[in-house]
Write a structure and sequence with these properties.
Layout (H helix, E strand, L loop, with lengths): L1 H4 L4 H10 L5 E2 L5 E2 L2 H15 L4 H36 L2 E4 L5 E4 L22
Length: 127
């Protein structure tokens, strides 16, 4: 059935399974069970083959596509985690307090202005 859906000879499917290009699940009697994802992958293999890509090249392309998909998934996970961690902090604003400490302000609130007095430091004994 999968051979018909992918428009391939059954022996070709067995060869792709041996090479690890498409690895279908197995039924209890050791027969191969191809999912729709497997059939789509077989069609992709066939397309690449018709374009002149060798079986080793096809295998490498599929491995790299899987790696890219896994990395994209990981980037999404990390982006979501970063958004969760930043969430409470992004809504807070910080400013320097009058004593030089850090104070939290509500959105729209301005920090109190610092005193305009200038402190001049002089060493002891100088008058």
């Amino acid at each position: 059935m999968a051979a018909e859906l992918a428009d391939m000879h059954p022996q070709t499917l067995r060869q792709y399974d041996r090479l690890g290009i498409v690895s279908p699940s197995r039924a209890p009697g050791k027969s191969r069970r191809y999912s729709q994802r497997d059939v789509n992958r077989l069609r992709e293999v066939q397309r690449l083959s018709h374009e002149g890509v060798s079986l080793e090249g096809i295998k490498r392309i599929l491995e790299l596509e899987n790696q890219v998909a896994a990395l994209q998934h990981r980037v999404t996970e990390l982006t979501e985690e970063l958004a969760r961690r930043r969430g409470p902090l992004e809504s807070r604003i910080f400013a320097a307090g009058t004593a030089g400490d850090v104070v939290s302000l509500a959105r729209g609130q301005r920090p109190r202005p610092r005193s305009q007095a200038v402190v001049v430091w002089r060493p002891r004994g100088d008058a």
